[in-house]
Amino acid sequence: MNNNFSKELEEENYEFYNEVDPSKPDTITKFVDDINKPRVLTPRCINSKGTYYEVEMKECYHKFHKYFPKTRVWAYEKSIPGPTIEVLRNEKIHVKWINSLPLKHFLPIDRTLHGAVDNPEVRTVVHVHGARVDSSSDGHPDAWFTRCNAITGIKFEHEVYRYTNDQQATTLWYHDHSIGITRLNVYAGLVGFYIIKDTLERKLNLPCGNYDIPLMIQDKSFNSDGSLFYPDSPPFPVRVKPSVTPFFLGNTIVVNGKVWPHLKVEPRKYRFRVVNGSNTRNYNIALSNNQSFFQIGTDGGLLNAPITLNEIPLEPAERADIVIDFSKLKGESLILKNLGDNSPHTGVLMEFQVVLPLSSEDTSKIPNILYPIKDHLEEHMATRIRTLPLTATQDDYGRPMLLLDNKMWHDPATEKPLMDSIEVWNLVNLTAFPHPIHVHLVQFKILDRRLFDEQKYLEEGILEFIGDPVPPREYERGWKDTVKADSKMVTRIIMHFKEYPGDYVWHCHILEHEDHDMMRPIRVLKE
Ligand code: C2O
Ligand code: CU
Ligand code: CU
C-alpha cells in the first residue's frame, strides 16, 4: 500500500477500509466520498432554431464509493447522474438522445410484462419528468428505440426531441421511460437533472452558483463484487422467472451517484433541489440537529411564499426545493436523515460538513414573497370530474398486480381530456398503501384528500365522501406533477390541459408498479 494512502486512512480513521463488502451496509464507511455536482451539459451548437444538445447513453463503470470496486452502469454521457440540462424559460432546445447501449441487459428482464414480450430486450426512450412538451417529444413508453435506432416502438416519431420550456422555473429530471423495463433502466443509472431558470427567479437573489446544488436521492443494493443487485424474483414464490417484484428497497443510499457522501459547505445559505429518484422508496428528509429549513419550491416551481419546516416527505419522483442556513454551524457536521426509517443505514442520506471558510459575505436572500400566483385553479372551473380507482388484483400468473381504473396498460385510452380544458381527478386508493401518482404534460394542484364510504363505492359504484376535506399538506401546496395518493382516501387534483394535443401517460411512479400495468394512456383531444 502506498504511504500517502495509508496515512490518509489513518488520519480519517477508516478502520474498515479493507473489510468493506458492498453487499453489507454494516461494513461500508459513510461520508467518505465528496458529493459531486453534476456538470452542466454544453450545447453542440446554438443557432436560430435554438440550442442543440446530444446525449449518449452508454455502458460504463462508475465508482459509487471510494472502497468499492467500479460498478457496471448505464449512464447518460458516462455520468451518474447524467449531465444537468440547464435552460432558460422559453428557450427552445433540441436534444438528440442517442442509444449506444449493449443489446443485452445486465439486469433481470421479465418477459411477461407489457412491452417486454416480443420487443428487443434493450430499449430506451427519454422522458423529461414534469415538462410541458409536445407529445412526440414526451418520451412516450412506446416511443422507444434500440441502439442506432435500428428498431423503434410504435410511437417513435423522431430522434431529436424538442423542448420549448414554456413553464415556470423549476427542477425537472430526465429518466428512461421505455415500456416494461423502466425500473431496470432507471436503476441501471439512466437519470439526470433538467433545470429551468427564469428572470423572475433570478431577481429574488436566492443562493445560486456553487450554493445551488441538486441532490438526487436513490437507494441501491450491491453484490460483494460491487456490481448492482436487483432481484430476479419477488420475496414470495411465483411461477415466472425472472419476475418483476412489487417493490424494490435497496440497502444503501446513493446521492448524486455516491454511497452516503458528504458535502463540505461554507457557513452560509445553500439551495438544494432534492429529487427522490428511487424506484420504490420514500423518504422523510430532516436534519440531525433538528434545525428547520425553508422550502421554496415544489415539483413545478417556486411557492408563492417560503415555508419553514423540520421535515419533508418525498415519494418517488417528488421534488423539494429547499434552503438550509449553515451560518451558525461553523465547524460542525450535520446529517441529512430519512426520518421514515429507523435503520442506521437507510435512515441516513448524507452529511454536511461546515468546514469551508466563507469565501465572501452571504448576500443571498429568502424573500417573503417568491412568486406571484398565476393560473388559479378552482374546482368550479372544471368541465370534467373523473373518478379513478387504484386497485389491487392478480395477473395471469397469479402475481399481485396494481391497476388504475381497473384497466391494463394496453386497454384503449379512457382519459381523453379536451385541449384547453380543466379537469378534476378523484384518485380513489382502494389498496393498502400509498402510490405516487404522476401525470405527464401538466402541473396540477392538490385540492384535498377525503375519506369515503368504501363499501358503497365497491358495491354500488357511488363515491360518497365522509368527513371534511383535508387540505393539502403544507409542503405540497404548490405546483405538483406527482402526488401521494393515500391509502383508503380520495386524493383530488385539478389540472389544466392547455395547448398540446396527443398521447401522454399517467402512472404510479413506483417503477415496479408502473412496469406492471399501473400506467394508463392519456389522449388530449384537439376537439
Ligand atoms: Cu418520471 Cu412518466 O415519469
Ligand atoms: Cu413524467
Ligand atoms: Cu404504485
Q: Main beta sheet, described?
A: 8 strands, mixed
Shape from CA axes?
globular
Helical residue percent band:
under 10%
The fraction of residues assigned to DSSP E strands is 35-45%
Query: Can you tell me the residue ranges where pLDDT is under 50 for at least 5 consecutive residues?
Result: 1-16
Q: Helix count?
A: 5
Radius of gyration over C-alpha positions, nearest whole angstrom: 23 Å
| Number of β-strand runs | 32
Q: What compounds sit in this structure?
A: CU-O-CU linkage, copper (II) ion
- Arithmetic mean pLDDT: 95
Name the features.
single chain; 527 residues; mainly beta; eight-stranded mixed β-sheet; six-stranded mixed β-sheet; 5 helices; 6% helix; globular; disordered N terminus; binds CU-O-CU linkage; binds copper (II) ion
Describe the structure.
The longest helix is centred in the N-terminal third of the chain and has 10 residues. It is built from 5 helices and 32 strands. With 527 residues, it is mostly beta strands. Helices cover 6% and strands 38% of the residues. The strands form 6 sheets. Strands 10, 11, 12, 13, 15, 17, 18 and 20 form an 8-stranded mixed β-sheet that branches. It is globular. Strand 12 and strand 13 form a beta hairpin. One copper (II) ion binds next to strand 6.
